[in-house]
Amino acid sequence: MGVDGSNDSLQLLDHFGSLYTMEDYRTNGYQVYFNSSWMANSRLTLHSSLLYNWSQAELELVDMPHVTEEVEEQLHHQDFTFEEMHTYSDLKYHYVNVQLGFDYQLTPRIAWMFNMDYSHLTADEEYVFGDEDGSMFITRTGVKIDF
Q: pTM value?
């Protein structure tokens, strides 16, 4: 059965993309990263890092032509109002990550390592999943073996 309810099974679906307008999506992202490593003595190495990221993205205001009358027969179930469409993908956040740690050489091929990470995300716009602000603290320790 065809799209219009007729028995013409070869009728192609109408494509309405050319009736609409395309808009720009602008993204700005800036990142600063510092790291350091200091060999305190022949067995102990200290290391640290700092990462800061600021990102912002937004869709320009969408100016959609009013096409309801042109497509009403084929798409009668659609509502072609797009007043808030440009705000759906707005994104603005700040991310900070701080890492501190050390490696202590037990033997020439075996070292004990310890690391701490602190991350914090501040999202100024609620994105797809809602408010995504938060912090995380992670500690890791283990033995590193060189082969």
A: 0.64
